[in-house]
Amino acid sequence: MSGKGLVDAERRRFNAFALAPSLIVLFMIAGLPAIYLVMTSLTPFQLVNPGSSTDFSSPLRNYRLLPGDPRFVNSLWVQAKLSFWGVLFQVLLGMLLALLLHTQSRVVEFARTFFLIPMVLPPIVVAIIWKLIYTPDISPLYYAAGLLNIAMPSLTSSVDFALTAIIIADTWEWLPFTFLMVLAALQTIPDEFSEAALVDGANRLQIFFYITLPFITPILVISGMFRLIDSVKAFPLVFLLTGGGPGSVTEVTNYYAYLLAFDFNEIGYSSSVTIVMLLLVVAVSLGVVWMGRRREAMA
Amino acid sequence: MSGGMSGPIRRSASVRRLVAIGVTLIVLLSPFLWLLQMSFKSNDLILQFPPPLIFTPTLQNYASLWQGAFPASFVNSLMSASFSTALALILGVPAAYALSRWAGRGKHALSFAILVTRMAPPIAFTIPFFLFYRWIGLLDTVTGLVLVYTSFNLPLVIWMMQPFFETVPPSLEEAALVDGASTRVVFLQIVLPMVTPGVAATAILCFLYAWNDFFFALILTRTNARTAPVAVVNFMNYEGWEWGKIAAGGSLVMAPVLIFSLAVRRYLVSGLTAGAVKG
């Protein structure tokens, strides 16, 4: 009895020693910055005006300005469009790719690795790759269009196509992620189901819609939500391909917050934009955790 | 095992499917291959259309990179990524072990806090870090980058290492504890050696995340601590459109990533989805 008590006490002491440094460091490099961010969002802080960093006279001023700021409202709308189409294409194409590669073959297993390349590239390299593709002088895409006598507009500086150009690049970059997740889900489907259905005379399309799809729907939703969270971070593509333009056609909220803080020196106002973005991310994260738990409970 | 009656889905790949896979792979990777071939071309050749299928590759782009400020930025990238990986492992591995053996209340709340830290858009950290560094003089230093990178690598280590510790059977630890060994000795001499592959995979992922960073380095560095991704973008802005050099720089930045990440591809998903789903 008392021996076990001693072991428990020793274990608890060890746990405290093992956890404390991480918790302290996390508090200092993540907790404190978060608190600091909330505080600056309550001030009209501008870098050129140091005194304004402690001016809490009208703490909600920034948040009251937000709904009436057309650039902010527009940035949310641009973000929504980018996230919606990006996530939709990534989930759909990722699923098709997973179905195509879900087969037992040494060659295919080897080939799978190469399909992951776009996802593991540094995001700035992905942006450079698409910059090359979208620059008329040096692009095989424009050359091919020229051969076919199609006059292609400069995609990244066209009001109509700039956002599409970014969505294409973003889909290319993150397709492997949904592909990997769907493939993992496909591999857990027991063969007996489709074999039984085949014996009952079902065709391939029916097997897909009545067996495969219900099985992978949860993973489609979860991988889509992960991409939704990360789509808020799309920075290098916007930064390098369009710079938010033309006008503010591709100016997502993240980019607007960046311009506010580091171009216009409006630190306080930018902080409030960032807080709003953070709250949206937390809400979606809660949803993902909830979905994950429910899935584990079901399994 | 492979009887004549193999299932409809699991049967070995048909020729049609293999062709479809091959074509898809080539189409998907063509933008990436375009960058790669461009890095071996002279600027005249880059502007030549139709593009010659066979050309004599040149290393002049890489050579001119080597003579400029690029190697220094490469070293900065290496240092900040390695140090932040080491720091995150030293702090996070014991913490992950403690968490994996801890069923107390507050675990879920803590887990969620860690998840949010991973999910937060970088700008949320950049503004406070920028102001703080400006104040204490850590702007444009490798130390500053190491600290920022640890803010996302430490949660990653704590998340990724827990499942590895859970695979170590508790009976092993109990036997040693009964023999009078302290928990610290059990951790260092019995448990840790059993999870070495997990530590290696986690270390590589940490390194890659730090290496791939563009946003923090763009804002928190100027010239001294500039990292390779920022240096490549600077070619575009300040040295005109030297496409060959840009392509070579991009290829160099992605080289370590390609080598390492293919080594840990099994863990890529669990690293990205950290915690919410069991990869």
What report would you give on this structure?
The complex is a heterodimer of chains A (299) and B (279). Chain A has 299 residues and is mainly alpha-helical. Chain A folds into 2 domains: 1-35; 42-298, MetI-like fold. Chain A is built from 13 helices and no strands. Chain A has helices at 2-41, 61-65, 70-101, 106-115, 117-120, 123-134, 140-147, 162-186, 191-199, 204-231, 236-242, 253-262, 267-298. Chain B is 72% helix and 0% strand. Chain B has 14 helices and no strands. Chain B has helices at 15-38, 43-46, 60-67, 70-100, 107-119, 122-136, 142-166, 170-178, 183-194, 196-212, 215-220, 228-238, 243-263, 268-273. The radius of gyration of chain B is 24 Å and the shape is globular. In chain B, 45% of the residues are buried. The interface between A and B is large, with 98 and 96 residues. Chain B: Residues 74-264 form the ABC transmembrane type-1 domain.
Kindly list the characteristics that best describe this protein:
heterodimer; A: 299 residues; MetI-like fold; 74% helix; B: 279 residues; mainly alpha; globular; disordered N terminus; transmembrane (chain A)
